[in-house]
Amino acid sequence: MGKRDNRVAYMNPIAMARWRGPTQSAGPTIQDYLNRPRPTWEEVKKQLEKKKKGSKALAEFEEKMNENWKKELEKSREKLLSGNESSSKKRERKKRKKKKSYGRWEKSIRSGLEI
After folding, report:
1. What is the CA radius of gyration of the chain?
2. 102 pLDDT tier (thresholds 50, 70, 90)
3. What pLDDT is attached to residue 27?
4. d(CA 53, CA 20)
5. Alpha-carbon distance 110 to 99, whole Å?
6. First to last CA, the chain
7. Fewest Cβ atoms nearer than 10 Å: which of 3, 38, 98, 104?
8. Which H or E run contains 35?
9. Beta carbons within 8 Å of 110's beta carbon, 6+ residues apart
10. What gap in Å lies between CA 87 and CA 36, rounded to an integer?
11. Is the dihedral of CA 12, 16, 22, 23 positive or negative?
12. Which residues contact 39 (CB under 8 A, 6 or more apart)?
């Protein structure tokens, strides 16, 4: 048995591309893009005005959220204010207890005894 022939004929890629002809593009061409219909200046102005106004639903939603946020803010303020009063009273009580109660070492010094 003889060896297999592994030789491949050389094909010039440029010549092959020319032989196939012009390629068909999948999408729109540049000319299609440039020739597309464009809005008039008045239409552009109307669109800009609509964007500035925004949607009514969004405006209503934002107002509702602002109202809810204000209510929550008032509630949290009330809680903090009422909480601060009670916590300050608790601190005063703790200070009084600390002043009244002495440690073992402080007692011995006050009585003049050494440990």
Report:
1. 44
2. low
3. 86
4. 56
5. 14
6. 113
7. 3
8. none
9. 102
10. 71
11. negative
12. 47
pLDDT value of position 76: 92
Tally of CA atoms within 13 A in the half-sphere of 110 that contains its CB: 7
Q: What is the DSSP annotation of 40-100?
A: -HHHHHHHHHHHHH--HHHHHHHHHHHHHHHHHHHHHHHHHHHHHHHHHHHHHHHHHHHHH
Structure tokens at 43: 């239409």
CA distances from 76 to 9, 84, 85, 87 (A): 85, 12, 14, 16
For CA atoms 42, 44, 47, 52, the dihedral sign is negative
Rounded Cα–Cα distance for residues 9 and 16 (Å): 13
pLDDT, averaged across the chain: 80
Q: Does the predicted TM-score (pTM) go above 0.90?
A: no
Q: Which residues contact 108 (CB under 8 A, 6 or more apart)?
A: 114, 115
